[in-house]
Amino acid sequence: MGRYLLRRIVSLAPTLVIVSLLIFTLIHLIPGDPARVMLGDRATEQDVERLREELGFDRPLYIQYINWVKGIFRGDFGRSVFIRESMVDIIGSHMAPTIVLTFYALLIAVAAAIPLGIIAAGRHNEAAGNLIEIFAMAGVSIPSFLLGLLMIIVFAVKLRWFPAAGYKTIDEVGFWPHLRYMHMPAAALGCMQAGFLIRMTRASVLEVLSSDYIRLVHAKGLDDFRIIFKHVLRNALIPIVTTLGQSLMLLLSGAAVVESVFNIPGIGQLIIHAVARRDYEIIQAVVLLATIINVAVGLTVDVLYAIIDPRVRLE
Amino acid sequence: MTAENSAGPGGPMLDIRGLSIRFKTDYGVLDVLDGVSMRVFPGEMTALVGESGCGKSVTIQSVMRLHDEKRQVVYDGEIFFKGRDVLKLTRSEMRAIRGGEIAMIFQDSFSSLDPIFRIEDQLLECVPEDAKRTQSGARDYAASMLERVGINEPYLRLRQYPFEMSGGMRQRVAIAMALSRGPSLLLADEPTTALDVTIQAQVMELIRELNRDLGMGVILVTHDLAVVSETCERALVMYLGQIVEEASVGDMLDRPAHPYTLGLVRSIPQLEGPKPERLYAIEGMVPLPGQITRGCRFAPRCRYALPRCCEETPELRPVQGSQSARCWRIGEF
Ligand SMILES: Nc1ncnc2c1ncn2[C@@H]1O[C@H](COP(=O)(O)OP(=O)(O)OP(=O)(O)O)[C@@H](O)[C@H]1O
Ligand SMILES: [Mg+2]
Q: Which residues in B lie closer than 8 A to residue A217 (C-beta atoms)?
């Protein structure tokens, strides 16, 4: 297991190089002179030229890339032209709400989907099962921003259960009040994944239910509780666990939209502003981070997979 | 429960009466069993033979009610086990019988172990309660069951997963599971298909022993008439969801009364004597349950069929002694 993890981490290097190169190139292909954008229309040509030199934009692209990589090895993730904070602080403070939002949404999706998926499988072709399936279909089809807006109208404006938008950190208001700002965004974000996971769970449970080994445990006279929770669930969860990583990454990228609906200062907002202002270093740092998160999630899923399925060996 | 149904001493432990089963499928309703009746007495081994698809597995699985009654099957008829109609039992009453009183070895038992649990985990689910009182007692019991079906180093095997074993070994684990609670009725569906001849003989001997010594009733589903002649007392021949002949094994082999049985007996390859020009085979194929026509179900393939056979449906009629057959021309060929 240790050897496997080490190898996976080493194999991360080429991925990072490729992704960072790609992003670096793409960013610099965005039309418009970044120095000009930063200084505005009224700046003189000399001022623009001076800024360009200062930021190193006049040098060839590959030199810029190498310098950036060198910086990372020295623990220097670059520096924003607009925000006078260290890159670690900038990303850290924007990452916190996004991480809370993403994991909360995943929690909601999984907590809703697994029981509903199981019921839908047990009651397929019956009213309850059909109802859950319609619900899942709706969840998959409604865009999160629309759902978010509807929720604001109903639960914030009409019923006044939750704040309409905005965000307070845990430090400012404590854990539970902090979470009050997150209920609606997380539900809006998690709904689509809940829909996917319900259908996935249902299909997986149905397949296991019709398998030979479940017929055998019935013939052994086990009670329904043991059959469902020991044999059916553990087998049915295997494919679901492997898709959880994917769900998490989709939620993370979907968070940007929900953040802007609910006006949460997360990574999504950071990157939207950074792109608008040509704040290259922030974009690069965020992409780097996203790649690392992606690989870490993949790794975690593989380890989980090996834990719940004895046939999988991490070699 | 009437006196007629109760299994007094000497009565049958299993008494299936007029069992018909229909399967609801996506492409319509299939009549899979039609009026199947059979009895099993304590200490008796009954063979159930017939071509692939005739309904042998469906018959014995219905004794344990393993079909999906909510969505898939409709039962008709009665299945008395020790005097109680199992088709009328509640779920929990049924559960109490499964695995304990009635055990089953599935046709494809080598592929029916749960892939993600150790053998130990799965075998311990079938260990009788009194052996379960201590952890080590249960393990020892499980290990002894593995040994009885010819598995060496049972304690090591207990720690393994199904994917770490060969098909024959998994099949023996499944057999050990079925036998571990000392069932009074064993439903064995081609129990030895994945085993080599020596192990096969050992497993059949074990079943025979439990059958003789403890009076375990056995229904043995098999295609191997040689095994039938060695181990069973009585045989039932099925064709397309019906019993077409019922006889002692000796009668069935010596003087089969139904043309279909005759075909089956003739298609046994002979080890001794001159090699025949070609192996005997019954002509044609088993039609699907949806394609059943009027008259005798075997008539389209029967070389002795008369016009009457294609018009009128024969009932199971006595031939001689305990032998009976479903044919219009009993004793004519
Ligand atoms: N779940 C099911 N749904 C629909 N039809 C089924 C189902 N199970 C069995 N059947 C049908 O019932 C008939 C009898 O099947 P069964 O498995 O009892 O045959 P069998 O005599 O055991 O054959 P084999 O020797 O190949 O095991 C077949 O025509 C089969 O297609
Ligand atoms: Mg079968």
A: 114, 125
